[in-house]
Write a structure and sequence with these properties.
The chain has about 280 residues and is an alpha+beta fold. Helices cover about 30% and strands about 30% of the residues. Bound molecules: pyridoxal-5'-phosphate. The site of pyridoxal-5'-phosphate has 12 residues, from helix 6 and strand 13. GO terms for molecular function: L-isoleucine-2-oxoglutarate transaminase activity; L-leucine-2-oxoglutarate transaminase activity; L-valine-2-oxoglutarate transaminase activity.
Length: about 280
């Protein structure tokens, strides 16, 4: 069955959907995206994703083609039309089509595109067994807090990791881990402190990160927001990633070496359980 995708006001079979060659998302990566996870046919923590969408478009002085309420209504219609139970809903807003010029066009109409991806979220091998991570230099731009589709450096880092036999890369800048290719990076020290990089332009302000840190604090885990080095990861009691797609997923191997016994840690397991409960409560 072909998916139904949404493009600028129309719900269409995926092979009939079209976007202009002059769309600035295509020519300049002049576009913002969000990925909301779908559980039980509903959206997880979607209000937070829409708030970040607004923040991202505002940061680029880009408009939205319609209100956030209308965007959410289209999102919910997409879930229905695709009969999706578990997976993700991808949403992209671009500055729209205009003749190619570096200057922002004055009168382009933003494009809005959405598609669904059906896949398991809760019961995954990565959640069960953990993932392996290697470090690569962070060569991305300096506004990583804006969720743009300029993802080539992240894609290259992911491929470098896969070529090295790992599942993902943690990016390093000035001797410190910034984040994963498409996730936020966290460790638990041998003293039981959850370390995570503080919010800045250097990392994406993860929706899952925020929820998980609040859950950690509620359960009495000490959270310290500061940068940490690859050596601190190697000497940590645990490591894990957070993202809308992967929830909380343990990291068990770092640069080819097991973290402690190479098994998912108990803090990561507990936080995953708590986050799943939170996600189920947030469904819309
Ligand atoms: N960091 C980067 C670079 C990402 O691309 C993502 C998600 O795509 C995240 C962090 C995690 O953010 P969220 O929890 O909002 O999915």
């Amino acid at each position: 069955m072909s998916r139904i995708v949404y493009v600028n006001g129309e719900f269409l079979p995926e092979d009939e959907a079209k976007i202009s060659v002059f769309d600035r998302g295509f020519l300049f990566a002049d576009a913002i995206y969000e990925v909301s996870t779908v559980l039980q046919g509903k959206l997880v923590d979607n209000a937070a994703h829409l708030a970040r969408l607004q923040r991202s478009v505002d940061a680029l002085n880009m408009g939205l083609p319609c209100s956030l309420e209308e965007i959410e209504a289209i999102q919910l219609e997409m879930l229905k039309r695709n009969d999706i139970n578990e997976g993700g809903l991808y949403l992209q807003v671009t500055r729209g089509a205009a003749d190619r010029d570096f200057a922002f066009p004055k009168d382009s109409k933003p494009s809005l595109v959405m598609f669904t991806q059906s896949r398991p979220v809760i019961d995954t091998a990565a959640a069960q067994n953990g993932i392996s991570v290697v470090t690569t230099p962070d060569i991305r731009w300096q506004r990583r807090d804006i969720k743009t589709v300029g993802l080539l450096p992240a894609s290259m880092a992911k491929q470098t990791a896969l070529d090295a036999g790992a599942n993902d890369a943690w990016l390093v800048e000035d001797g410190f881990i910034t984040e994963g290719t498409s996730n936020n990076a966290h460790i638990v020290t041998k003293d039981g402190v959850l370390l995570t990089r503080a919010l800045s332009n250097k990392i994406l302000h993860g929706i899952t990160r925020k929820a998980v840190l609040a859950l950690a604090e509620e359960t009495g885990i000490t959270v310290e927001e500061r940068s940490f080095t690859p050596d601190e990861v190697s000497n940590a009691a645990e490591a894990f990633i957070t993202s809308a797609s992967m929830f909380v997923t343990p990291v068990v191997t770092f640069n080819g070496e097991p973290i402690v016994d190479g098994k998912p840690g108990k803090v990561a397991k507990r936080l995953r359980e708590l986050y799943i409960a939170f996600a189920l409560k947030s469904l819309k």
